[in-house]
Design goal:
By secondary structure, the chain is α+β, with helices and mostly antiparallel strands. 25% of the residues lie in helices and 21% in strands. Strands 13, 14, 15, 18, 19, 20 and 21 form a seven-stranded mixed beta sheet that branches. Strands 1-10-9-8 form a four-stranded mixed beta sheet, covered by helices on one side. It has a four-stranded antiparallel beta sheet with strand order 4-5-7-6, covered by helices on one side. Strand 16 (373-374) and strand 17 form a beta hairpin. Helix 8 runs antiparallel to helix 10 (351-360) and helix 14 packs antiparallel against helix 15 (482-499). It is globular, with a radius of gyration of 24 Å.
Length: 545
Amino acid sequence: MRHANLFVFILCLILLAGCTEDSGPATPVKPVSPRDIPLVPEDGGTIVESMIGEPSNLISPLSSDSASHSVAAQIYVSLLKYDKDINLVPYAAESYEVLNDGTLLKFKVRENIFWNDGVQLTAEDVEFTYKMMIDPKTPTAYAGNFKLVKAFRRTGKFTFEVEYDRPFAKALVTWAMDIMPKHLLEGEDLLNTKFSREPVGAGPYMFKEWVAGSQIVLKANPNFFEGKPRIDTVIYRMIPDMGTQFLELKAGNLDTMGLTPLQYLYQTSGPGWDGSFNKFEYLSFGYSFLGFNFKHPFFQDVRVRKAIDFAIDRREIVKGVLFGLGEPANGPYKPGTWQYNDTIKPRKHDLVKSRQLLAEAGWTDTDGDGMLDKDGVPFSFSIITNQGNVQRIKCGVIIQQRLKDVGIQVDLRTVEWAAFIKEFVDKGRFDAIILGWNILQDPDIYNVWHSSMAVDGGLNLTRYTNPELDDLLERGRYLVKQEDRKPIYDKIQQILFDEVPYCFLYVPKALPIVQARVQNIKAAPAGIAYNFEQWWIPRSLQRQP
């Protein structure tokens, strides 16, 4: 559970729910009676959350996985954050001004924020973080926005201003970054520092311990400037299989997790569930996709990519994998938002059209074995995804069968999360990949699609490059008015539809479940965790770590 912090909310890889199905009553979890809930909130207790993968780095600018950012968001603070309605609001910033048509930002940092070691957080820390982000030696995927700054000027111990050459649409979003401690990280080798696993922050929770492969423990920060969180301890348990997570939830050993649609609809009601847990449902800000590696010779021809797109039946996936709890994806934006281009109609499932395009690209069955080949080379490739996420694995199985229907042999491979990110995603070592992205609140998708990001460790993991797309991405981020930006991002979506660097698959519903003993959970457009520091557990229902 975490703040709607920028790096959690955007540009990081999402862990969609998935598990091996297991049914039955959850009898160890006692129902919560209204008599158990006092009228006045009480402090203390422990909440246990699961993680499918171990964080890679708790210096958040250096990581691109959601596990790292989920934990880091509780440890650090940012100048701005998203509120429950997904609006940017002051956080570590006491105030800010947007001047000179958006080319000048002025910030005042709160004076009552202290790092966990007692040192005061100041504008010097913000300046240090900015310089760290633009340093070419810093291995970060998020430098692009910061490099557009013309000048950074500290104007006092707690004040600074940022100047741009021209208005930049994501200027404010840029400064919703995690602030790093200058006095601890200055001069450190960021690739070999203890702070990547023993961070010191100024956020609502303080780092206590990291037991590799087991758990991360955070304790409530008594000096947090917004007040000490009501729940004393947060434990992130690393459980790489979501079927095991579900068993642990049923046994009462977890307080919360994301359910699969099957679990949500059919396996979490009745004795042991009703009155013991609360469930929530809302369309997530995220999508899953099948991405092609553009270094692979098979995927150079757009006809091949379109043929695969025609062979995939998204409605079959939504029905069979999500049990209807989601929508087919048709681009990088959430349906119903202003940036979504609803004039682009998704390709219908059409095996005849798929075979026709493959034949036009030279792929035919010359030896009569039912599989396509070209110049003596069979059309065979592998799809990789992460272990433990059964939704992605089931999606891969469906795609595997549909491509077999048109004569393409697909091998499906799963890899443990940490190795998946470090050895395959970051290095581009795959033929094709099933993965997911969070959907941005701002339509700027420069960091994922610009050619400058098509490098090892960059977020353009498929290495797709297109000069026209680059130009549109660059132009769009310098437009501020929605009516000016809309045509740009409509065209970007048209290019992605025509070029098919991804087969966009689905936008799932988020299906969190939380033990009923946890109070003050209020669903909002931002989800349920925006007010996590104000969640509380009645003293009579608290457990200690």
